[in-house]
Design brief:
The chain has about 500 residues and is mainly alpha-helical. The chain is built from 23 helices and two strands.
């Protein structure tokens, strides 16, 4: 029997469970998919600020940079092809997520993660060896397929393997790895920018092979989730894995609940059509709005283009990459804070606090740039430049412990089993669609809105604060299969959408 210490859920059905080594190791290996996702986000902004990369693939942008005062600071990088290099990954991820919904349901979470790892490896080879823009874009599209499959399978895997009481912390390992990937990308970009001979950008893109291989190996090593095994009819194997990951022999209550959830799931012949039914509408609406708001915080505009953004503000090339490293470090710290707090203070508190802090940061940057950065001047003065970096750090740190990890966590834990794969597919698809929109439009928006771009994002941050305040229920500590009765039937607004098929059944109590 595996070692660990006891954990039970608070309220509802208590399941015996220990925090076992196999759960921790499996979650660490699986969450390496986040490492690759974060690396892909961070690496693009760094290489697009490198002169050798721009000279080879985007000569028009490179020539524009060489003539000081030719264009507004805000328009230096306004180029649709440059934006397509970044955004093509997310367009592919959007498409792949719908295929990934089928594979997670029919082939399992483990195999879907393996497919993601293979796509990542092949895409990395294309990017590192790119001879022209077409080869570069093909590599990004393959990486996007990896993101689509990985972001579909990994959050589901983490939520289904983890005991309810620490589900938040283990699921946030995915987002922690996203932030670590971002930080590593910024560090590698800083180092490879010093490489002479014009091949530093190849090093940056090629080192994506390391997290790609880690995810592939991890997918081979881990066991599939009991939920997935039972859903595919492998009952004995599912029960055996459940005993291993829970570290106890008496798993019958949880096993029977999974069997019942699987039975209901098998009655659903059309998962996406089922997702539109009235009883699944609260989860669907929450998921769509969480992913939409996550992107319209402006976070990925900063993640994709941090070095470019800092150069726009007048930082020199080295300083802009160095500043991106600092902000990446802040996001890692934020994710670590979230791991500690998500299962203690709950999801709602972190989301609300994060929104307030991001709003203040956006308004602060807007005021500084509006008053002090002229369109053709070369830089901000040193004190104001440092203040901008501090505000950006405040923004990414608060995102790191709130909307970054929790939008993924909540979406992965609120759907019933019969809608879970389709729901996660919608989660990834909506997230990737709006990530694509921001990636494709941000540099043009920066050119036209100038410092007003931060005010644009601030307006959405204020709206999402109100959305959480009134419409998002707390899911901390609630077993996944009990979400409908414990969360949705009890909520002042969403309970009207839940079909009262079991109206006379006693409802679990005791959750905040």
């Amino acid at each position: 029997m595996a070692g660990g210490f006891g954990v039970t859920t608070s309220g509802g059905e208590d399941f015996e469970a220990r925090i076992t080594p196999i759960v921790i190791i499996s979650c660490i290996l699986a969450s390496s998919g986040g490492l690759m996702f974060g690396y892909d986000i961070g690496i693009s902004g760094g290489v697009t600020s490198m002169a050798d990369f721009l000279k080879k693939f985007f000569p028009a942008v490179y020539k524009r940079q060489q003539i000081p005062g030719l264009e507004s600071n805000y328009c230096k990088y306004d180029n649709q092809y440059l934006q397509l290099f970044t955004s093509s990954l997310y367009l592919a991820a959007l498409t792949a997520s719908f295929f990934a919904s089928y594979t997670t349901r029919k082939l399992g979470r483990k195999l879907t993660m393996l497919v993601a790892g293979i796509f990542f490896c092949v895409g990395t080879v294309f990017n590192a060896a790119a001879k022209n823009l077409a080869m570069l874009i093909i590599g990004r599209l393959l990486l996007g397929c990896g993101v689509g499959f990985g972001n579909q399978a990994v959050p589901l895997f983490l939520s289904e393997v983890a005991p309810p009481r620490i589900r938040g912390a283990l699921n946030i390992l995915f987002q922690l790895n996203v932030t670590v990937g971002l930080l590593l990308a910024n560090l590698i970009n800083y180092g490879s920018s010093k490489v002479t001979g014009g091949w530093g950008w190849r090093l940056s893109l090629g080192l994506a092979g390391v997290p790609s291989v880690l995810l592939t190996i991890g997918a081979i090593v881990v066991v599939d989730t009991p939920t997935s095994l039972i859903e595919r009819g492998k009952l004995e194997q599912g029960k055996s894995v459940l005993k291993r990951i829970r570290g106890v022999e008496n798993v019958d209550p949880e096993f029977l609940e999974l069997l019942e959830a699987s039975r209901r799931a098998k009655e659903v012949k059309h998962p996406f059509r089922n997702l539109l039914k009235r009883r699944n509408r609260p989860q669907l609406i929450i998921t769509v709005f969480l992913q939409f708001f996550q992107q319209f915080t402006g976070i990925n505009a900063i993640n994709f283009y941090a070095p470019v953004l800092f150069q726009t503000l007048g930082f020199k090339s080295d300083a802009s990459l160095y500043s991106a490293v600092i902000t990446g470090s802040c996001m890692v710290v934020g994710a670590i804070i979230s791991i500690y707090l998500a299962d203690r203070v709950g999801r709602r508190v972190l989301l609300l606090e994060g929104a307030i802090q991001m709003l203040v940061s956006h308004i602060g940057v807007t005021i500084i740039l509006g008053l002090k950065l002229k369109e053709t001047t070369s830089s901000l003065d040193r004190g104001l430049a440092i203040l901008v970096v501090v505000l950006v750090c405040s923004f990414v740190g608060s995102f790191g412990w709130s909307w970054g990890p929790l939008a993924w966590l909540i979406a992965s834990e609120i759907f019933p089993l019969e809608a879970r794969s389709a729901g996660q597919s919608v989660t990834v698809g909506v997230n990737m669609f709006f990530t694509f929109v921001i990636a494709q439009a941000f540099l043009s928006m920066l050119c036209h809105l100038k410092f007003g771009i931060f005010l644009f994002f601030a307006a959405f941050v204020f709206i999402m604060f109100l959305f959480v305040l009134f419409f998002l229920p707390e899911t901390k500590g609630v077993p996944i299969e009990e979400m409908t009765d414990v969360v949705w039937r009890q909520h002042w607004f969403w309970r009207r959408y839940i079909e009262d098929d079991f109206e006379d059944d006693p409802k679990p109590q005791g959750y905040a």
